[in-house]
Automatic annotation (TrEMBL):
Molecular function terms from GO: dynein intermediate chain binding; dynein light intermediate chain binding; ribonucleoside triphosphate phosphatase activity
Record has Hydrolase as a keyword: yes
The protein's Enzyme Commission number: 3.6.1.15, 3.6.1.3
One Pfam family matching this protein: AAA_8
GO biological process: microtubule-based movement
Dynein heavy chain AAA module D4 domain segment(s): 2-165
Similarity-based family: Belongs to the dynein heavy chain family.
SUPFAM superfamilies attached to this UniProt entry: P-loop containing nucleoside triphosphate hydrolases
Keyword Isomerase: no
Protein name as annotated: Dynein heavy chain axonemal
Organism, scientific name: Triatoma infestans (Assassin bug)
GO cellular component, one term: dynein complex
InterPro entries found in the cross-reference section: DHC, Dynein_heavy_chain_D4_dom, P-loop_NTPase
Length: 166
């Protein structure tokens, strides 16, 4: 219910208020596979069944009708709802951070195909220590407020901290 309420709030902000939103969900935030039903629906069609009650849908339609009319579209209930959903889909950017280790992601991808079909998958593999050190050193070199003598030790510390938390 909390996820459903959060998604309803996100849809209102993105669809009615035309606000860009990034929705981030990690493996640990999926205590129940039913959460993924909502995410699958959101990714595949943009519509999550029964996300809003009838009164809320009516309020959304009435609120967005002037914008629909202003866009030169007939302001029927169906057109207003489609306009709302399309705008929400445009404004909501969904990031799913799921580990590929083990069979969980593979099983979820079979059960909820939009997790794969309606997303772009970026695989991040472990970086070698030298690469972490070089990248951090490069960024630190651009900082004017950091003494040059500290660039190397701080970059080594940053690389170490990155690997330590992994």
């Amino acid at each position: 219910n909390d996820l459903r309420a959060d998604l309803a709030s996100i849809y209102i902000k993105a669809g009615l208020k035309n606000v860009g939103i990034m929705f981030l969900m990690t493996d640990s935030q999926v205590p129940d596979e039913r959460f993924l039903v909502l995410i699958n629906d959101m990714l595949s069609s943009g519509e999550i069944p029964e996300l809003f009650g009838d009164d809320e849908v009516e309020n959304i339609v009435q609120t967005i009708a002037p914008e629909v009319k202003g866009a030169g579209i007939n302001d029927t209930k169906e057109n207003c709802w489609r306009f709302f959903i399309d705008r929400a889909r445009k404004n909501i950017k969904t990031m799913l951070c799921f580990s590929p280790v083990g069979s969980t992601l593979r099983i979820r991808a079979r059960k909820f195909p939009a997790l794969v079909n309606c997303t772009t998958i970026d695989w991040f593999m472990e970086w070698p220590q030298v690469a972490l050190e070089n990248v951090s050193f490069r960024f630190l070199a651009d900082l004017e407020d950091l003494e040059e003598s500290l660039h190397l030790p701080v970059s080594l510390l940053m690389a170490y901290m990155h690997t330590a938390v992994n």
